[in-house]
Amino acid sequence: MILIGRKQEQEELKRLAESGQLEFVAIYGRRRVGKTFLIRSFFHDNFTFYTTGIARGTRKEQLRHFSEALHEQCTSLPATEAEDWFEVFKRLRTLVNKARRRRKIVFLDELPWMDIQKSEFVKALDLFWNEWGSTRNDLLLIVCGSAASWMVNNIINNRGGLHNRLTCKLRLSPFNLNETSQFLQAKGINWLDETIAECYMVMGGIPYYLMQLDKKYSLAQNVDRMFFRENALLADEADNLYKSLFKKSEHYVRILKLLVDKRSGWTRQEIVDGTGLSNGGSLTRMLQELTECGFIRVYEPLFQREKLYQLCDFYTLFYYMFVKKQKGYDENMWMHIQGKPAYSTWLGLSFERLCIAHAAQIRRALQLDSIATKTYSLFTEKAQMDMVIERADRIVTLCEMKYTQQQYTLDKTEAEKMTRRMDLLRVLNRIRQNVQCVLVTKQETKKNSYYNSLITKNITLSELIK
Q1: Residues of the chain with pLDDT > 70: what percent?
Q2: Residue 120: beta bridge partners?
Q3: Is 60 exceeded by the pLDDT of residue 60?
Q4: Scanning 57, 211, 266, 358, which has its CA 20 to 30 A from the CA of 373?
Q5: Mean pLDDT throughout 385-405?
Q6: What is the pLDDT of residues 143-163, one digit of tens each?
Q7: Three-state DSSP class for 420?
């Protein structure tokens, strides 16, 4: 498979490779997002040294595997298993010293798996870097891992010898709609924009999930095949996903389950009340890690003192609304649910999240690239506004997201609601500004008198996918 998208990440990797300076890079992100594929594809496997940790491997197995990889890539090194991690990194130093490449690129993949309890792995890595690695200008060390809590606590926010040693951190996010469309086309799948969007709302732009799609089948048939049939490949994906990312994953799952149930999100105290978790440092860390992995977003609605934590991971929403609730096996569950109330509710919720995730594309469609903007949400007792764009040219844009199976028509009731929201924005804004309303819909909205009197612009899926 060719490397799709990741333009910013590739530009950063190119800069690091050509910097001529010492570089220590941490790449992290959720399981299946394509971290290893990105690094191996970009560098074409031209590493001075490469190895990966063993999932659920013992300390002995990790040491043996790393030692064997060192011997395979430098036969003058012992083939025997190193006694400890300090010895492993001494051998790695020897390998790098012997290498003739001008740029020494060392890639250690799935680093968290190597750190078995009481193995002193982090101490050995610390010594390797501070005593030897940091003295070289030709070394590019890349460490990677899916276990977000481990990467954040031990590498990115390390308080010991590795504190502030990183020269770059890259959090790899899921594909956006445009990258998803490119990926599907590379697989020979040419779907309509609305089908691509629904696919995204199920799988969230995760490359591994998208890879499992078969062009012989419709989207609904693919979803049934991948998630709902007995022994389906991704039927148990959620458990594996959360366990691979977080220690004591059951606590994180309690937070995610709670966040599924409220569209706008929950305050910290509501999370404490709803999950029974203590309101302390552990909760702060869990919320930070869920945010770092892209499962939730934290934001401060305008004119509200408390932050809200909102679920933004599409797969998690899909899983808890449908896969987790399935009783028994309906092998054609997704086919059967099409058009039913639960399906329509999910589409509406997911489309709102899709628009928030593509706020940059919405601003681009509004031709705001050269205008300073501030994007926020606003919740009051009178109205809920998921996306408001405040512009430096003294215009406030209210974005209304509407996802319907048929062409959307703005009726009197909805027009009155939009008018009230626009009036509320005029009252709440301290500086006098013009207020306009923009519709974001699946396809072009039907034009009528309500549309003509209220709507400044209609943004469609095709503009989000561009």
Answers
A1: 98
A2: none
A3: yes
A4: 266
A5: 91
A6: 999 887 788 889 988 888 888
A7: helix
Left, alpha or beta for 182 (phi > 0: left; psi -120 to 50: alpha)?
Answer: alpha
Query: CATH code for 365-465?
Result: 3.40.1350.10
Which token pair is 460?
A: 């469609």
| Mean pLDDT confidence for 332-336 | 92
Domain definitions of the chain by residue range = 7-171, 175-357, 365-465
Question: How far apart, in whole angstroms, are the C-alpha atoms of residue 218 and residue 43?
Answer: 35
Residue 410 has pLDDT above 90, yes or no: yes
pLDDT score, position 302: 67
CA distance 230 to 330: 9
- CA 32 vs CA 10, 52, 206, 241: distances in Å: 18, 15, 6, 9
CA–centroid distance for 262 within its chain: 20
Query: 140: helix, coil or strand?
Result: strand
Contact 207, 183 (CB under 8 A): yes
> Average pLDDT in the 435-456 region?
95
- From 54, 51, 152, select the one nearest 92 (Cα to Cα): 51
* pLDDT score of 432: 67
Pairing verdict, β 434-441 and 455-460? parallel
Mean pLDDT of 155-181: 91
- Dmax (CA) for the chain in angstroms is 81
- 457 bridge partner residues: 438
pLDDT tens for each residue of 234-269: 988 888 888 888 888 899 999 999 999 888 889 999
- In angstroms and rounded to an integer, the radius of gyration of the C-alpha atoms of the chain is 25
Question: What does 369-413 look like in DSSP terms, one character per residue?
Answer: TTS-EEEEEEE-SS-EEEEEEEETTSEEEEEEEE--SSPPB--HH
Q: Decide if pLDDT at 429 tops 80.
A: no
pTM equals 0.90
pLDDT value, residue 431: 53
The rounded distance, in Å, linking the Cα atoms of 49 and 464 is 41
CATH code at 175-357: 1.10.10.10
Residue whose tokens read 């062009």 = 215
How many angstroms separate the CA atoms of 203 and 198, rounded? 9
CATH architecture of 7-171: 3-Layer(aba) Sandwich (3.40)
Amino acid at 117: Q
CA distance 293 to 124: 27
Does 7-171 match 175-357 in CATH topology?
A: no
| Amino acid identity for residue 27 in this structure | I
Q: Which of helix, strand or coil describes residue 440? A: strand
Beta pairing class for 455-460 and 168-171: unpaired
